[in-house]
Design goal:
5-stranded parallel β-sheet; 3-stranded mixed β-sheet; binds adenine; single chain; alpha/beta; Alpha/beta knot; elongated; Trp Operon Repressor, Chain A; 10 strands
Length: about 240
């Protein structure tokens, strides 16, 4: 799987992919990440990539020609998709990450300034993606987020594929709490159930904790999820306990 990032600040990516599982996957040849300087695709001698908006407004708009040239040069045959990172895009989530992981190539265009010439969006880009309801100074950090999250769905990137399957958002629940040694730290104790050796009991406790956290923080996730009978039962228990306290 290959990512191609088109940006006017290639230096921003110098260190993002140089650690952890993404770096390892690149070394193993499972992933390829290429950073492309948009200015190299400028058509004039000043390497101009932006210009003032027609109709007058604040700021600058990224010109269409360099972006079209860049994408047309970079795009490979095979299953390829071109995405623009912009706060106007559809919301990025785990489902979209998994879908993008099925492509051979994902081209990510980092938006900047007041925006990108609309003809890029209408005639070149397949999808516009936002990573959240806030405005970043540009699409670069968003592109890094997309590469990281999509990579986790590429087979072989995350050590045990189990850990992706059991993720929050893949399971539709937030994670249960995790503890490690020491058993007691500054008087704070690890819940006793985790030492019980009773795997069924531990699994039920974890499921209950995950449901509790999801109900408190992301009730929307529960609404869009079909609950198992055990989950229904635990949820009733949680709601009853809430009323009592
Ligand atoms: N560019 C600026 N803000 C953004 C956001 N929230 N998501 C994606 N790209 C962006």
């Amino acid at each position: 799987m290959r990512f191609d990032i088109i940006t006017i600040f290639p230096g921003l990516f110098d260190s993002v992919f140089t650690a952890g599982v993404v770096k390892k996957a690149v070394e193993k040849g499972i992933l390829e990440i290429r950073i492309h300087d948009l200015r190299k695709y400028a058509t004039d001698k000043h390497q101009q990539v932006d210009d003032r908006p027609y109709g007058g407004a604040e700021g600058m708009v990224l010109k269409p020609e360099p972006i079209f040239r860049a994408v047309e040069d970079i795009r490979q045959t095979g299953k390829s998709i071109t995405c623009l990172l912009t706060p106007q895009g559809e919301m990025f989530n785990s489902r979209l990450a998994e879908e993008l992981a099925s492509y051979d190539q994902v081209v990510l265009i980092c938006g900047r300034y007041e925006g990108v010439d609309e003809r890029v969006i209408e005639h070149l880009v397949d999808r516009e993606i936002s990573i959240g309801d806030y405005v970043l100074t540009g699409g670069e950090l968003a592109a890094a987020v997309v590469v990281d999250a999509v990579s986790r769905f590429v087979p072989g990137v995350v050590g045990k594929e189990e850990s992706v399957r059991h993720d929050s958002f893949t399971t539709g629940l937030l994670d249960f709490p995790q503890y490690t040694r020491p058993r007691e730290f500054r008087g704070y104790r690890v819940p006793a159930v985790l030492f019980s050796g009773d795997h069924k009991k531990i699994a039920r406790w974890r499921l209950k904790k995950a449901l509790e956290k999801t109900l408190a923080r992301r009730p929307d996730l529960l609404e869009s999820r079909k609950l198992t009978p055990e989950e229904e039962e635990l949820l009733e228990e949680i709601k009853k306990e809430r009323k009592e306290s």
